[in-house]
Amino acid sequence: MARTIKIPGMVDPHVHLRGMEWDYKADFASETAAALAGGYWAIFDMPNTPPTTTDQTALDRKLTAMGRDAVCDWGIYFGASQADNTAVYAAIFNAVCGLKIYNNQTTGDLLIEDQVLRDRIYAAWPPPRVIAVHAEGQTVADILALVREYRTWTHFCHISTAEEIDLLRTAKADGLPVSVGVTPHHLFLTKMDVNCLGALGRMKPELKTQADQDALWAGIADGIVDVVESDHAPHTLAEKESDKPPFGVPGLETTLPLMCTALRDGRITETQLVDLLALNAQKIFKLTPGADTYTLVDIDAAYDIKRDNLRTKCGWSPFEGMRVVGAVREVWIRGTQVFDGENVLVASGFGQNLFGEQA
Ligand code: DOR
Ligand code: ZN
After folding, report:
1. Ligand 1, atom 4: nearest CA belongs to which residue?
2. Which residues contact 271 (CB under 8 A, 6 or more apart)?
């Protein structure tokens, strides 16, 4: 008998769906369908793709497009910008899941390295909406100084090193309002894999050492890590195989099976799996899905990850060829069955913005 577990309201708080000017890479319809196939109830989209979600017009355009196309529930991050867009925050914070600040180099042009501007951003962003940060190494300490001052809930995205885990362990011990996300690629791949994967193994933060990866698993074991987030960042295969490959890998459809494989291998418990993929993100973003929003996953079904079986428009995976367990059998959202293991059962526009209306 196959063993099936029920996960209430899976949330991925860190995805890059593309769409609009980058819809040749991926679009809101294709990637929200990939989210359902990956077991997700809700996903939160990052602001770093053109037009960057850093003003009212760009936000309105994304809200409209997502409202029209999404098949799962969703949220949108507003992006902090070098040009200082803090004056807009009061008008938009209610319509978004949070604010994203890019504090280290990555895809897009939203990098903010000036601590004075970061301070102004923290001063302007209204709690209780979350601030999510891309921060690596020393920058984690720089951001923690602002959290200490302003006490705004801050989610540290894709933490990837032992040193960063240690900084955040101390921050949590000090009672700071912080949460920690790690990605499946940092949990299951190391820099050694770049030898085989080439550009398909290149993302920001980069893949790290085995010792760093061990620290992430230790962080899961002792509760420092709150969320496993995919950082789903599709680019076309042609772009990844070009002379200047962009950073980023898709992950929406491989995160749950990889974590089910970790469950089978005794690296996490079923409770940890549910916390890392659903309950902790619900708490951080103050969401309470009804009992009729859940995913059923067969944790005994074994298969190889293959690009032909993925729905993401980019059509590849850094995990291709890995043997995993965990097949999504059913996804239900607000009492409607939206995925049956093979087919998306709802029309474009079924998905709802979980973060209300604009002021
Ligand atoms: O590898 C990455 N790709 N890291 C990021 O932070 C952004 C993302 C993207 O948008 O391509
Ligand atoms: Zn990202």
Report:
1. 204
2. none
pLDDT in tens, 15-34: 999 999 999 999 999 999 99
Say how many Å lie between the CA of residue 2 and the centre of ligand 1. Answer: 37
Q: List, for residues 267-315, the tens digit of each pLDDT value.
A: 999 999 999 999 999 999 999 999 999 999 999 999 999 999 999 999 9
> What's the CA-to-centroid distance between 160 and ligand 1, angstroms?
14
Query: Residue 303 in 3-state DSSP?
Result: strand
- Rg of the Cα atoms in the chain: 19
Distance 204 CA to ligand 1 centre (A): 6
Question: Domain residues of the chain, as ranges?
Answer: 4-339
Predicted confidence (pLDDT) at residue 318 exceeds the cutoff of 60? yes
CB 31 within 8 A of CB 59: no
Q: Which atom of ligand 1 is nearest to the CA of 235?
A: 11
Q: Cα(178)–Cα(176) distance, rounded to whole angstroms?
A: 6
Atom of ligand 1 nearest to the CA of 249: 1
Q: Is 306 exposed, middle or buried (0-12, 13-18, 19+ CB in 10 A)?
A: exposed
Distance 1 CA to ligand 1 centre (A): 40
191-210 mean pLDDT: 98
The protein residue whose alpha carbon is closest to atom 2 in ligand 1 is: 248
Chain centroid to CA 72: 14
Distance from residue 3's CA to the centre of ligand 1 (Å): 35
Q: Quick one: pLDDT at residue 357?
A: 63
| The dihedral formed by the CA atoms of 198, 200, 206 and 212, expressed in degrees to the nearest 10 | -90
CATH number of 4-339: 3.20.20.140
Residue with tokens 């890479």: 25
Q: Is the CB of 118 under 6 A from ligand 1?
A: no
Q: What pTM did the predictor assign?
A: 0.98
With a 6 A CB cut-off, is 183 part of the ligand 1 pocket?
no
